[in-house]
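Board notes, transcribed. Complex of a protein with copper (II) ion.
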Amino acid sequence: MLKKLKPLSLLLFLALPLMLAGCSTPEVLDPKGPVASQQSDLIILSIIFMLTIVAVVFVLLTIILVKYRERKDHDKYSPELHGSMLLETIWTIIPIIIVVILAVPTVRTIYSLEEAPQPKTAEAAQEDPLVVHATSINWKWVFTYPEEDIETVNYLHIPIHRPVEFKLTSADSMAALWIPSLGGQKYNMAGMQTTLYLQADHVGTYDGRNANFTGEGFNEQRFKVYADEEADYQQWVEDVQNSAPELTQYEYDNLLIPGVYEDGTAEFNGTHLQWIDHSKNADYTLEAWDRLGYEPKNPHAKDKSQNLLREDEIPYYQQDNTVDNSDEDMDSEEHAHAGHE
Ligand SMILES: [Cu+2]
């Protein structure tokens, strides 16, 4: 049985590089910005280092199997050995060295990723990172540009060569923002804020998604990132400011009803931050559900239809609910660090 399998498994083994060559490079190893390239460098360094260890182990194993195999002139060899200080020291120190060699670049990279990528030119050093709030709602993404006073659903534009400071939070379930071409994921959580720096250095369209399972519509919670030349980015911002409809609180609250965004993408003038910053108030979504008359149902229920109230049926929307978030910014950052990191 084994003898028959041998040539087959050998063939499979030899075919492995051919099969792998058929796949295209995964996005994670094809970085389009400084954050992603630091991370892919670290992954490649670790893989090469660990493969080297595997190679050394296999060579030693082969040597020892051959050298100490049972044979006639080994008759008097006695393998019994007790307490060798030298050997104990060697096999304690080698793993320590391996762990240190892996840990140093890893820790260094992790710390450097907590700050905006280093600017490459003096001109770039003048600019602050572009602040974008990324709010996860089951099952869509809302991107808020507080400076530009615009908001988008399920897509965003960013300028190249400029760090983007994502302020992550969630209106409901814990989610994770992941744009593989630009860098690794970080978690979005209701009632708190996490910061993720990313940067694109190449014009292009990149895929983004939620990387933390959140149920039914999870797989549809995706978005596109359009990385533009600075001028094109500014043009897009202007276009949105000139032509997008004003965001109303009723419309925003409707976004909070769980579901896949049927229209695909959208853009608005004004941002939801005028009513709510979900990193400061985790209850807002439940309050909005109450206002609209939405009741969560079992995902397996046969009839999931809901009759939501119209805007003119809800007195709450006839009043001004604007709050000022600006002077509380310091508090929220302290909270994020104390409470979570
Ligand atoms: Cu948390």
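Residues 330-341 have pLDDT under 50 and may be disordered. The CA atoms of residues 139 and 221 lie 5 Å apart.
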